[in-house]
Design goal:
Length: 387
């Protein structure tokens, strides 16, 4: 028997419903652009980064410009009604012009590691260049034209690298090259450009002074960061083991090639790598439990740092051709703590005492504890234990 096909009376899809919208959702800085430009261009936001410590939202655009604006104020302009909508020059903003094409990636390294200067902002664009900016005065400090392809990603090295690399950022380009750019010396320290396939992974083996580069074909390249020497190219299981060892998941699976300090000492002597020689001389076998404990502590510290910010703005783009969208995260507990802290900072000691927040009895008790001698403290503890 043949199956009878019944045509649907009504059909619809999310794509069709989205196309039928008369007013598409606006971007996070669209209202600001309409206020500052009488003839706004429809340039898309191609990269963004939010700096919670400064409350600055940095947006890179398709035309190469970078707009810096207060995160709280631009959200108020988009979501809240009030007198601020009538202000002409509000919110205050900066426009950085230095790229000749689309801005692909942005990095504020001080947010990741405090060793970087708080005024430095790094951007990479389609014009093959990496730009170093002063985020406070909006000036272009330096341009790094070392790649032969558009910049796709920017990274900050971990804190256990050698001191010279700690002042660098790592840039990845579409020509399959990786560079270490020194923000302090304003020059390129290493350019690794022998990769045959697009780069998918950047990892660090700081104890051996290695930069580990993974490509889309599964191959792994090991570069010595101080000398720029290509140590080896790995494929198959060896490549996977090296990547896993960089994550700390399997410290001993790679064997003596990565664990025995003598091997690294001889390799450092052969390549005249002073950093590898110095680190191999003072390094012993690492304890797995200590490494895992350090990892857990880093996760706890990162969660504490993130919870201190009441507002976080995260960029989101599912299609490289689409404009970058933004998701707002509000931490209510951190917001309450910040409001209470600001309120208490404005109160004087007399005001706090009159409102019942503090009392003379509590003040005297803590004063006596602070002024008492060590013998009185010890005798008091002994009497308490006897009771």
């Amino acid at each position: 028997q043949s199956v009878t096909e019944i045509e649907p009376n009504v059909s619809n899809s999310l794509t069709a419903a989205w196309k039928e919208l008369k007013n598409l959702p606006c971007g996070i800085i669209d209202t600001l652009l309409q206020k500052i430009d009488d003839h706004p261009n429809n340039y898309k936001i191609t990269a963004s980064v939010y700096i919670p410590a400064l409350d600055r939202l940095v947006c890179g655009r398709e035309d190469g410009s970078i707009i810096i604006v207060s995160g709280n104020q631009t959200i108020m302009l988009q979501l809240l009604l009030g007198r601020h909508l009538a202000y002409e020059d509000w919110p205050h903003h900066q426009v950085l012009c230095g790229h000749s094409g689309r801005v692909n990636t942005l990095l504020y390294p001080h947010h990741l590691e405090e060793r970087y200067e708080a005024s430095h902002l790094v951007s990479g664009g389609v014009d093959f260049s990496v730009c170093l900016w002063d985020i406070f005065n909006g000036s272009l400090l330096h341009r790094f034209p070392v790649h032969a392809g558009e910049i796709t990603q920017l990274f900050a090295p971990p804190k256990d690298c050698n001191p010279r690399i700690l002042n660098c950022v790592c840039s990845v380009a579409s020509d399959h090259s990786v560079a270490l750019l020194s923000l302090k010396e304003r020059r390129c320290l290493m350019l690794a450009s022998r990769h045959l396939f697009p780069i998918t992974t950047i990892k660090w083996r700081a104890s051996d002074d290695f930069l580990v580069v993974g490509c889309i074909d599964g191959s792994v390249y090991l570069w010595q960061m101080e000398t720029g020497h290509l140590d080896r190219v790995l494929h198959g299981m060896s490549a996977e083991e090296v990547l896993n060892a960089c994550d700390g998941a399997s410290m001993n699976t790679v064997g003596d090639r990565f664990v025995n300090p003598a091997v690294h000492l001889f390799r450092g002597l052969r390549h005249r790598n002073l950093a590898a020689i110095r680190q191999a001389a003072v390094r012993g076998l690492h304890n797995i439990s200590e490494h895992l404990q350090k990892q857990r502590q880093d996760v706890i510290d990162a969660s504490i740092r993130s919870r201190t910010n009441p507002l976080l703005i995260q960029g989101l783009r599912t299609n490289p051709k689409d404009q970058e969208s933004h998701i707002l995260f509000f931490d209510v507990e951190a917001l309450i703590v910040q409001l209470l802290s600001e309120e208490y900072d404005l109160l004087s000691p007399n005001t706090m005492e009159s409102t019942g927040l503090t009392s003379n009895n509590e003040y005297k008790r803590f004063s006596e504890l602070a002024c008492s001698t060590e013998s009185n403290k010890l005798s008091g503890n002994l009497n308490t234990n006897k009771i």
